[in-house]
Amino acid sequence: MGMSVNISVASVEDAEQILKLQYLGYQSEAELYGDWAIDPLTQTLESLRAELTERHVLVARLGDEIVGTVRGSVDEDGTAHIGRLVVHPRMQRHGLGGRLLEAVERRLHERHAVGAYRLFTGHRSLGNLRLYARHGYRQTEVREVSGRLSMVTLEKHHPVAAAA
């Protein structure tokens, strides 16, 4: 591609590009589960703008184009919640999802007392499950949402917290 991908903090001005990428990236999930009403496909621009001020949102840029994004927050118990990890389809399988995951974990740890990281994905999302397993996440719960979908919760403990 000739250019390197840079990961940085998203700004409110990035909201439209993030929403378009999210819509594109979650088409395969919607198809996999036969459900086009999933949250990432129905989120409004206004609610995304609010998230940009309330959560840690990172973007991966290739030049001026946003080609990946991830969000995170930390609750009062020190559990970091990671979500909406999405990489542009043409950029997938090149390690960008892993880079975004590591970057958001690092950012959350630098700014909060994180004891564990938690995320979830659908039970049929095998690529996601493999990615998270490669990064040390282990399945903690499977919750049936509907006949077509079970949500898999995965967690990993922060190395410093685990040693304490």
Summarize the structure.
The protein has 164 residues and is an alpha+beta fold. Helix content is 38%, strand content 32%.
Task: Provide structural commentary.
The structure is a single chain. The protein is an alpha+beta fold and 164 residues long. The chain has a domain at 5-115: Gcn5-related N-acetyltransferase (GNAT) (Aminopeptidase). Helices cover 38% and strands 32% of the residues. It has a 7-stranded mixed β-sheet, with helices on both faces. A hairpin with a 5-residue loop joins strand 6 and strand 7. The protein is globular and about 40 Å long.
Task: Give the topology.
Blueprint: E1 5-9, H1 15-25, H2 27-33, H3 39-42, H4 45-54, E2 56-62, E3 65-74, E4 79-87, H5 96-111, E5 116-122, H6 126-134, E6 138-144, E7 150-157, H7 159-163
Parallel strand pairs: 4-5
Antiparallel strand pairs: 1-2, 2-3, 3-4, 5-7, 6-7
The proportion of residues forming helix, as a percent range, comes to 25-40%
Average pLDDT number: 93
The gyration radius over C-alpha positions equals 15 Å
Our measurement of the CA-to-CA distance between the termini, rounded to an integer number of angstroms, reads 44 Å
Backbone structural class? alpha+beta
The CATH architecture of the domain at 5-115 is 3-Layer(aba) Sandwich
Key phrases:
164 residues, alpha+beta, Aminopeptidase, seven-stranded mixed β-sheet, 38% helix, 32% strand
